[in-house]
Amino acid sequence: MERDQTEELRALQDTLYFIGGKWRIPVINAICNGNKRFREIERSIPGITTRMLSKELKDMELNKLVKRNVYPETPVLIEYEATNYCRTFGNIIQEMIIWGREHRRVIVEDKFNVSDNIDEKN
């Protein structure tokens, strides 16, 4: 079966656009780990600003990744939840976490091996 490289490139670019931001994956991860309220999500992601989280949540809602639920209580309660469509990305995120852990291990291990070799030569 011949592969359509143009279509594959377009699909990769769409994916990279989706995950390309610094905060998109951490926000999805936070929501999928049970954080539903704005402040819970914000506290679970060190370094994210209120403005950036607000922007990410709005963008994710427009892209059908997050559902915003407003409950008419006093004060108004707003919760966010990952859509089923968003959850289809969960396996990819899990694989990225596994790869990231392994990559860090390889880099740290290589760093120590390089310094060990330098020490042995001196």
Q: What is the 3D form?
A: globular
Largest sheet: 2 strands, antiparallel
Helix content bin: 55-70%
Class per helix and strand makeup: mainly alpha
Order of H and E elements: HHHHEEHH
CATH H level of the domain at 5-83: which superfamily?
Winged helix-like DNA-binding domain superfamily/Winged helix DNA-binding domain
CATH architecture of the domain at 5-83: Orthogonal Bundle
User: pLDDT below 50 for ≥5 consecutive residues: which ranges?
Assistant: none
Straight-line distance between termini: 56 Å
Give me the count of strands.
Answer: 2
The proportion of residues in beta strands is 5-15%
Strand order of the largest sheet: 1-2
The third-level CATH topology of the domain at 5-83 is Arc Repressor Mutant, subunit A
Number of DSSP helical runs: 6
Rounded to the nearest angstrom, the radius of gyration is: 20 Å
Average pLDDT over all residues = 88
Please write the CATH class name of the domain at 5-83.
Answer: Mainly Alpha
Any overview of this molecule?
The chain is mainly alpha-helical. It has a domain at 5-83: Arc Repressor Mutant, subunit A. The chain contains 6 helices and 2 strands, in the order ααααββαα. The chain has a two-stranded antiparallel sheet with strand order 1-2. A hairpin with a 5-residue loop joins β1 and β2 (77-82). The longest helix is centred in the C-terminal third of the chain and has 32 residues, at 90-121. The radius of gyration is 20 Å and the shape is globular. The protein starts with a helix and ends with a helix.
